[in-house]
TrEMBL record:
Catalyzed chemical reaction(s): (6R)-5,10-methylene-5,6,7,8-tetrahydrofolate + 3-methyl-2-oxobutanoate + H2O = 2-dehydropantoate + (6S)-5,6,7,8-tetrahydrofolate
Cited function: Catalyzes the reversible reaction in which hydroxymethyl group from 5,10-methylenetetrahydrofolate is transferred onto alpha-ketoisovalerate to form ketopantoate.
Main subcellular location of this protein, as a coarse class: cytoplasm
Organism: Psychrosphaera haliotis
The entry's keywords: Cytoplasm, Magnesium, Metal-binding, Methyltransferase, Pantothenate biosynthesis, Transferase
Subunit structure and binding partners: Homodecamer; pentamer of dimers.
Name of the featured protein: 3-methyl-2-oxobutanoate hydroxymethyltransferase
Cofactor note: Binds 1 Mg(2+) ion per subunit.
């Protein structure tokens, strides 16, 4: 496999080839995922939960994301590496520029930020400065205290229409990829049709242009609860390499996710 770039991901959407993504936090797992042919790796602020054992992502720092981005970069040959910008690290364009610089210098190919309309100016400035941006709509975990819990978003028609508008606005501002988390399948499909950039779903049905899961959920080692949209591939294969390879195959064939793993 050759290096995955933003233009390659766009072509995959246009060709109807599904994008397989996973979170990664260190060089060894990154190397394993890359060797199995994963397209995208995300240094997720989910590290606050799966690495640090906290009950939200809010305590993760830009320095921590940069450190793990360096680790993942060292183990990666072909996959596109995205670094999550943590809580409060992109509260205004100037802050976003400064913090994204640290993540790009650590080896990220792109940064991801959570939100809609309020980010248009930030996205414009980041992309103009050479920082590719992935948007993130729906259940944006950094807003867990605003939502009152990790709840499915976009269930009523007003909120759904607003999310479609925000997706179009993010694209117009310059975003080149869009994560849709925990939204009803019909809404994820409508957004995927409304934008020309690829959408990557998590708990958003099988109609998005790709899928992402937290690696600990795929490998069945998340402590506490396991989200209903995730799938334990170690349970099926009993082997790390085969678990990741099967996940990628099932994303590409459309077998993952099945109906029991999405929201209506
Ligand atoms: N291990 C792990 N996996 C994840 O997918 C994940 C993390 N951690 N940490 C960061 C965020 C938080 N995420 C979450 C956390 C909880 C739910 C959850 O409990 N969802 C309920 C739906 C509730 C409703 O119906 O509104 C569910 O049943 O899955 C969903 C996403 C996804 N991300
Ligand atoms: C679940 C993905 C999309 C994420 O943002 C993370 O791992 O932090
Ligand atoms: Mg995140």
């Amino acid at each position: 496999m050759s290096k995955i770039t933003t233009s390659k991901l766009l072509k995959m959407k246009q060709d109807g080839e599904k994008i397989a993504a996973i979170t990664a936090y260190d060089a060894s797992f990154a190397g394993l995922f890359d060797q199995q042919g994963i397209h995208v790796m995300l240094i997720g602020d989910s590290m606050g939960m799966v690495l640090h054992g906290q009950d939200s992502t809010l305590s993760v720092t830009n320095e921590q994301i940069a450190y793990h981005t360096k680790c993942v970069r060292a183990g990666t040959e072909n996959a596109l590496v995205i670094a999550d910008m943590p809580f409060m690290s992109y509260s205004c364009p100037a802050t976003a520029l400064k913090n994204s610089h640290e993540l790009m210098a650590a080896g990220a190919n792109m940064v991801k930020i959570e939100g809609g309309e309020w980010l248009y100016e930030t996205i414009k400035q980041l992309t103009q400065n050479g920082v590719p941006v992935c948007g993130h709509l729906g259940l944006t975990p950094q807003s867990v205290n605003v939502f009152g819990g990790f709840k499915i978003q976009g269930r009523d028609a007003d909120k759904a229409n607003e999310m479609i508008e925000h997706a179009k606005g993010l694209e117009k501002a310059g975003a080149q990829l869009l994560v849709l988390e925990c939204v009803p399948v019909d809404l994820a499909n409508a957004i995927t049709a409304a934008v020309s950039i690829p959408t990557i779903g998590i708990g958003a049905g099988n109609g998005t242009d790709g899928q992402i899961l937290v690696m600990h959920d795929i490998l069945g080692i998340s402590s506490g609860y396991i989200p209903k949209f995730s799938k334990n591939y170690i349970e099926i294969t009993g082997n790390l390499q085969q678990a990741v390879s099967l996940y990628i195959d099932e994303v590409q064939s459309g077998a993952f996710p099945d109906e029991a793993r999405w929201f209506k």
